[in-house]
């Protein structure tokens, strides 16, 4: 058994602040927890192995902030302290529905991600003036309460649940919203036009839902946006133009103000991001460094806007599994920060721009299963990528070049076509010859047969002729056999 709650804490009844995080405690909450810590306003017991349920009488304490992230706490959430403002019980094993009344009207930050909480969000949350709500990675379901009236919400993280309904309409009034994650749910309908009015949005992830319709053109008004993920929906239409208005992504390096860093560190936990063909987790402010656009697995059509190359700070660009056509942007080499580029499984045609060889940071490239043609640009990075991932050009029969050990398709195929044409002519001549021979033979037989059938004199002469031939052959064979026998 590991370390217990230190016994001497039982007598520290005047403590107002206590941090015993990451101390290896494997104990359950002691009976004296609520009475001894009745004056504590800030308690941090995160990153231990504390088990069992939260104390039922903790509502009697003076806690203003409770951090108990990454433990083994189970059971339901009890009545909370009335003065509680910050509640973080993420990465535990809490289960059951949320309480209908938290008992803490001052709550402005709730973080319960990665538990086993079920049922719907209670209407009580509508009475809270929330700044941050993180319920990601639970078993919550149903539609979101439409009574939200908070205008100060900056973080709403609801990914990987079973929420349904339309895009939350109450968000139209959340003009301070900077972090919105609704990924991996069952939301449906179209994206609202007013989404472009959420000018503080920095992170927008709506992937793996059932949204349809077009991408609102004014989404490019979100000048502070650095992460946009609409993958795996039913979105159609074209990619919006005026992408250069996404000024946060046009610059290679993001300068994050200190206040924002502090906010992210205390609120945003580990965030999974699909990049480089795998889901990677980034902690806190590190997510701000992943400038990404992912529109993959939709029904987008039309050309890739040339203006997309103005997004020089992008690290990840994924437009795969759509119905995009036209050519690749000629200045794609201007996106020199790209580490992952995926245009596979579209209807893109034309040549691969030579500027692609300028992307020296690329570690993932996939142009497979399009209609690309012409010579593949050469370069140290591109050659290395092909060596590691030889399938990156698959399904483009018109591509050639030294890297594929295939010369120009026109020269390669010309002799073969001449040979095929000559073979075809020979085959046709032979076919006509045998067809004529067979036809003549059949016609000759019919002439002889008809002549014998209708001319009696010819028929008698015909049979007499064969009788004479038969007699002569018989005499010849007998005489020859007799001579041969005498010689023996």
Automatic annotation (TrEMBL):
One of its GO terms (cellular component) is plasma membrane. The chain crosses the membrane at residues 431-454. Keywords: Cell membrane, Glycoprotein, Leucine-rich repeat, Membrane, Repeat, Signal, Transmembrane, Transmembrane helix. It holds the Pfam family LRR_1. Gene3D superfamilies: Ribonuclease Inhibitor. It is found in: Cell membrane; Membrane. It is a single-pass type I membrane protein. The keyword RNA-binding does not apply. The keyword Transmembrane applies. This is Uncharacterized protein. It comes from Aegilops tauschii subsp. strangulata (Goatgrass).
């Amino acid at each position: 058994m590991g370390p217990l709650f230190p016994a001497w804490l039982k007598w520290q009844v005047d403590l107002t602040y206590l941090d015993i995080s990451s101390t290896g405690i494997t104990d359950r909450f002691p009976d004296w927890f609520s009475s001894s810590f009745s004056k504590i306003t800030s308690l941090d017991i995160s990153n231990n192995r504390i088990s069992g349920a939260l104390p039922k009488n903790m509502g009697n304490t003076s806690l203003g902030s409770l951090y108990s992230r990454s433990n083994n706490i189970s059971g339901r959430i009890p009545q909370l302290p009335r003065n509680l403002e910050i509640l973080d019980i993420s990465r535990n094993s809490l289960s059951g529905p949320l309480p209908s009344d938290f008992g803490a009207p001052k709550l402005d930050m709730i973080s319960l991600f990665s538990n086993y909480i079920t049922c719907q969000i209670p209407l009580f949350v509508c009475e809270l003036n929330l700044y941050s709500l993180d319920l990601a990675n639970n078993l919550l379901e149903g539609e979101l309460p439409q009574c939200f009236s908070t205008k100060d919400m900056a973080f709403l993280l609801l990914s990987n649940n079973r929420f349904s309904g339309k895009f939350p309409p109450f968000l139209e009034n959340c003009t301070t919203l900077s972090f919105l994650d609704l990924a991996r749910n069952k939301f449906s309908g179209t994206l609202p036009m007013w989404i472009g009015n959420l000018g503080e949005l920095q992170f927008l992830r709506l992937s793996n839902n059932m949204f349809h319709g077009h991408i609102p053109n004014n989404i490019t008004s979100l000048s502070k946006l650095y992460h946009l993920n609409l993958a795996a929906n039913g979105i159609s239409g074209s990619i919006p133009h005026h992408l250069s208005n996404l000024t946060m992504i046009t610059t290679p390096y993001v300068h994050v103000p200190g206040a924002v860093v502090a906010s992210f560190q205390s609120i945003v936990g580990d965030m999974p991001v699909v990049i480089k063909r795998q889901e990677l987790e980034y902690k806190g402010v590190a997510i701000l460094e992943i400038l990404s656009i992912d529109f993959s697995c939709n029904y987008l059509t039309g050309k890739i806007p040339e203006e997309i190359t103005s997004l020089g700070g992008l690290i990840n660009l994924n437009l795969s599994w759509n119905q995009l056509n036209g050519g690749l942007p000629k200045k794609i080499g201007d996106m020199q920060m790209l580490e992952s580029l995926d245009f596979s499984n579209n209807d893109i045609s034309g040549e691969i721009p030579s500027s692609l060889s300028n992307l020296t940071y690329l570690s993932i490239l996939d142009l497979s299963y399009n209609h690309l043609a012409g010579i593949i640009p050469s370069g140290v990075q591109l050659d290395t990528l092909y060596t590691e991932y030889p399938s990156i050009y698959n399904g483009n029969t018109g591509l050639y070049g030294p890297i594929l050990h295939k010369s120009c398709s026109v020269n390669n195929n010309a002799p073969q076509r001449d040979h095929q044409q000559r073979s075809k002519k020979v085959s046709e001549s032979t076919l006509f010859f045998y067809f004529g021979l067979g036809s003549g033979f059949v016609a000759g037989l019919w002439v002889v047969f008809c002549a014998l059938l209708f001319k009696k004199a010819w028929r008698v002469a015909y049979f007499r002729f064969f009788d004479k031939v038969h007699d002569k052959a018989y005499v010849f064979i007998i005489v020859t056999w007799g001579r041969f026998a005498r010689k023996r």
